Amino acid sequence: MAVPTLSFTGSARRSPVEIVATMGTRLTRSPAAEMSGLRTGRFGRWADGVNAMRADCATFAGYWREHNDRVLTEHKPGPLWVVLGDSTAQGLGAPSPACGYVGQSLAALNEKELACATFGEVTRKYPRASLTVKQVVEREQKRVHC
Length: 146
What we know:
With 146 residues, the protein is mostly helical. The protein has one domain (16-144). Helices cover 63% and strands 0% of the residues. It is built from seven helices and no strands. The chain starts with 15 loop residues before the first helix and ends with a helix.
């Protein structure tokens, strides 16, 4: 059985945690790890989670980049909301970028039209999103009355 290789999009820079997680994922996907239970143990789950978060980072950043480009070209009257932050501002850890605090804040700031468009983009741009992501987006759309 071949050990799968991992590939990442985005920046080639990796933190020490990401390097250890990448090595850990490769180790825990070996035939010996499958037989020993290492694959499904705490370390295997942790390593998989770190790598999944790294993949989400590039996807979520791309989502907000496209969103920002669209908002800046619309030239709508009114305030321009600027969010400063890091992974939390992008929504990492949430089921989708629109379900992070920025997407929720747009809805709470009475920017219903923009919030609804943002939620709609998730479904349109990510048709293969998990059922959980789709359910969360649908729940948020109902809550905001999209």
